[in-house]
Write a structure and sequence with these properties.
The protein is of the alpha/beta class and 265 residues long. It contains nine helices and ten strands. It folds into two domains: 178 residues, Rossmann fold; 66 residues, no CATH class. Bound molecules: adenosine-5'-triphosphate (ATP). This is NitT/TauT family transport system ATP-binding protein.
């Protein structure tokens, strides 16, 4: 697989006259997972929509070389009139793959994600929230996206289900070399899943710092994840981003953005 790199350079975005993204630069290479972390309103979803091509930015440069793209959002957004199976298989329809093959592939992947044949015949309203999230994840993964954009897809789930879906996602991403950009409010989720974490702050939305995670995924146990998350929470720029010290964010007073060397021990 050829190496590709998604690049955002000096990007700005305004809704009307309100600037919501200010001078955003980032890059993510094939097979890497980048987490965008920050408080509500700092422009994470806007940035993801721009990267997905759903929104045109006001200024700056975006280079998005990945061809097959899939998105997964906090709400599963399933089509209510289609069964779980048809919802999952939907993405393959555009590729002119026969119905039988679409369904076979969907059943196989759904099985890996813990969905039974019975579940697959149900309509979304007949499934629990957790099942609907599995269906949405299966739908996103079935098209084998080169780039997967995740907007807090796990935030409404209980911790057991989250951990299970994290594992399934990681396994798929590693097997397929998928590039992932994920939004989360949950620093521990970012530490668990990402290769690099971008800390954002609001008003206007901007990047405060990037924290590369040096520890290979295979060596990230719960202890390391917990310790690293605590270390990150103590970083002044993370505290500033989440406004943990009651610090009003003021451009003039802000420390200069620094690239932190990573929290791995
Ligand atoms: N379509 C829109 N029109 C005008 N303003 C918008 C629009 N969408 C978002 N905004 C504003 O832009 C800012 C950034 O919103 P955005 O949803 O990108 O932030 P976020 O970091 O993803 O927030 P959250 O974590 O709560 O989802 C917010 O102030 C929001 O009110």
């Amino acid at each position: 697989m050829s190496m590709k790199q998604l690049k955002v350079d000096n990007l700005f975005h305004k809704y009307g006259i309100v600037e919501v993204l200010n001078n955003i630069s980032l890059s993510v290479s094939s097979g890497q997972t980048l987490a965008l972390v920050g408080p509500s309103g700092c422009g994470k979803s806007t940035l993801l929509h721009i990267i997905a091509g759903l929104l045109t930015h006001s200024e700056g440069h975006l280079e998005q070389p990945f061809e097959q793209l899939a998105c997964m959002f906090q709400s599963p957004r399933l089509l209510p009139w289609k069964t779980a199976l048809d919802n999952i298989a939907l993405g393959l329809k555009a590729r002119k793959i026969s119905r039988l093959e679409r369904q076979q592939r969907a059943i196989e992947l759904a099985g890996q994600l813990g969905l039974t044949r019975d579940d697959l015949d149900k309509y979304p309203h007949e499934l629990s929230g957790g099942m609907q999230s599995r269906v949405a994840l299966a739908r996103a993964l079935l098209v084998s996206p080169e780039l997967l954009l995740l907007d807090e897809p796990f935030s409404a789930l209980d911790i057991g289900l989250k951990l299970e879906l994290y594992q399934l996602l990681r396994r798929h991403v590693e097997e397929h070399g998928t590039t992932v950009i994920m939004i989360t409010h949950d620093l521990m989720e970012a530490v668990r899943l990402a290769d690099s974490i971008l800390m954002m702050a609001p008003e206007p939305g901007r990047i405060l710092a990037e924290f590369p995670m040096a520890q290979p995924h295979a060596l990230r146990d719960d202890n390391w994840i917990y310790r690293t998350s605590v270390e990150l929470m103590q970083q002044p720029l993370v505290r500033l981003g989440f406004q943990l010290d009651g610090v009003g964010i003021n451009h003039e007073d802000m420390p200069q953005p620094v690239a932190h060397g990573g929290c791995a021990p």
